[in-house]
Each structure stands twice: as structure tokens, then as C-alpha cells.
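Q: Got a minute? One more chain.
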Amino acid sequence: MNFELDGLHRPVIVVGGGQAGLSMSHCLTAAGVGHLVLERERAGHEWRTRRWDSFCLVTPNWQCRLPGFPYAGDDPDGFMVRDEIVAYLEAYAKESGVPLHEGVEATRLRQLPGGGFRLTTSAGELTADHVVLATGPYQVPLKPRLAERLPEHVVQLHSAEYRNPAQLPDGDVLVVGTGQSGCQIAEDLHLAGRRVHLAVGSAPRVARRYRGRDVVAWLDEMGYYARGIDEFADADAVRFRANHYVTGRDGGRDIDLRAFAAQGMRLYGRLTGVRGGQLEFADDLRRNLDAADAVSEGIKDSIDAFIAQRGIAAAREARYRPVWEPPDGPRTLDGEALSAVVWSTGFGRDHRWIDVPVFDGKGYPTHHRGVTSCPGLYFLGLPWQHTWGSGRFCGVAADAEYLTRRISDVGRGGDVRWLSGTPVSTYPADDDWVAPRTVA
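A: Always. Here it is, folded:
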């Protein structure tokens, strides 16, 4: 065991070497705050190991604007693939001179009686005045208990384990879940000529382009990514929404599940159970497809209103027309006909190693803009930590800069205050792919 870190004290310890942890390090360095970053695996580990071979960003490259390191490639309107994302993060860590210690796992975090923290790691024990937890919200792949009732011959993978169609045995494949991962994996299999069955949940969709621009560009200009969670009257409802499905594959395009169905993909409602070898699905496919389309068209309405208000010259565009309608009634699927299932059913949290009382009754961290009720303990990189962009390459910089100011103020003798009368939790629930609803 390497104990090179054993006994060290730093003003700040950042746990996690993904985009959030690297961004935090950059901001701390710029502010002259001593720190180190611990990463259990390698920098960007999640991008390396939990993404399939054809994975790419769903937001344009120009939105990759980590603090001090905006995208500078020759394809700003393109979509970086997995290996390019990893290279971007590696270059950022090198350029920023991040004091990164890879292969060091944090196993316990405790608050010290006199203030500060003790962090037990695989490389010894460290202490710090402040700790920033930048480990992300998705640690443990989740599968439903009904997976245990599938026929034994069916190969089962979580989306975190899926790499490519050739990885699965020949035959029909069921993908469960229509968040971003589920839809893109279903498309990957469909384009490879596989017979795909897809259990469709309530995740919304969004068009790739509208009226001459990427929809992301319109939303960015309209201020959607910078709007704070506290500006919403229904903040909890906003926070727990699933992300819109779309893809950046092959230059970017819509994901239209109806079009896939017209081409032979079999669509079902939410998976509800397995009985006698038969998979049962809710009678909600039509409702789920209609709701996803309504969200996409509603976004277009907002763009139309923005264009009209600003007097922007933008060509009119015909609206979406469904190319396929689902049959009425619930559907079943013979489990014996399947060769594999890909569970795109989200991730759970594993905060058992954090021995500090900053979680609510559901295990969510309570905070305001990443500042917890425990002086000196912070979170970074959570979805909707403060804005829609918080968990993305486009918004983590603002959150890291905010936390750096908080830490610097404390270092200058500033007051550490709980910033909100009511703590908030910021993990969104996964798409309700299975009934009854399971919150991941």
C-alpha cells in the first residue's frame, strides 16, 4: 500500500477527478488556495468505462467550456465522441496543472470535533479544512428486482456495461428505459440490424435542430442553461425531470421512436412485470409518445416566441408530424424469444463512506448551490445543483467558481452560513421506465 499521502493536511481536498473535480481544482489554483484532488481510478473514469463505443455528446462541442479551457477544436458545432471527451479532460488536467492523485479511493469522511475533516483513503489518512465532493450523482448501476425472473438464457447488461451490438448474442434484444442512454443504445442496435424491443417511459424528447440552428443554441441564447433552480415555482418537479432524448451521432439528429417503429422496432409501454416467462407492459405507450412529442413541440413554441420578440430573421420550418401510431391496449413479450436485455434504468448513490449528517431521509445531499449545512463540506457536479447546466460541461464552471469564492471568503475570516431556510436535494429521478415508479 502506498502511504505517500498519509498524514498530509491541505486547506481543500477535492474527491473526484471528472470534469467537476478538475474544474474545482482549476478555480482553486487561480484563487491561490492549496488543495489536492483524489480520484479512485483515472481522470475521466466514467467517460472511459461507462460509455458505449459509438457514444457521443448530445450537446455541441462549443458548450464544452470548462473554466479556463473552452473547446478550441475545428468542429464547434459537432459532437465529441467518447475518446475525444477523454482526451479533452486529460488535456485539461495537464494544462491546469491539477495536483491529481489517481488510484486513491476515499473510504471514509468524518468531521473533526474542532472543525475540518479527516479523510480515510487507500493511501492513508488526510485532513482538510474543506472537502469538495465531486463524485457525481450516478455511482451504482441499478436493475429492477424483476430482472431475477427472466429466463436463465437471457443475457442481461446494464447500460454502463454495454459497448456494442456484437457484444450481445444473436437474437432479439429488449432495451428497458428511454432516457438518453436507452434511446441511443436502442438506436445503436437498430442501426446494426438487430431486432429491438423498447420499453418506453415518460422521458421527454427534443428536436436536434429548428429554424436553422441547433436547438441547444437557441436555448442557450434564451438563457435556459443559466436559469437558477430557485427561479422555478415548481423547483422539485423541475429537478426530478428526466433529460430530453436526442443524439449527436453522425453530426446530430432527432431520435424519433415512432420512425424506428415504422422501420421495425417494437415499442411497448413501461415494463411492469414478468409472469410465467411473459414480460408485461403498461398500457401507456401512446401517452408516453404523445407527451414526449408535446414537450418537443412546446420547446419549438418557445423558440418561435423568442424569434418573434427579438425580430430575428429565421426561416419558417414545418412542424413534426407523427409517422406511426401505436396499437391500442397493453402488450406482452415472450421472454423465451429474447437473447438479451439492456437495462437503461439509471444509477443509485453510494454515500455510505460519508459519515457526516448532510443527507435527507431519501439519502440525497441537502445543500444550496453546493454548500451544505456542515461548515466546510460542499458538493459539485450535481444535476440542477444551481442551473440546468450544472451537471454539464457548460455549467460546472459557474458552480466551481461560486464554491471557490465561498471557500476563499471563509479563509479570509468570512462567516459560513446555511444559505437556505430549507435544504434542497438535487438528484433527478430516472425516467419512470418501470411501474411502480422507482426513484434512483
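A: The chain has two domains: 9-139+348-411, 143-345.
Q: Perfect, thanks.
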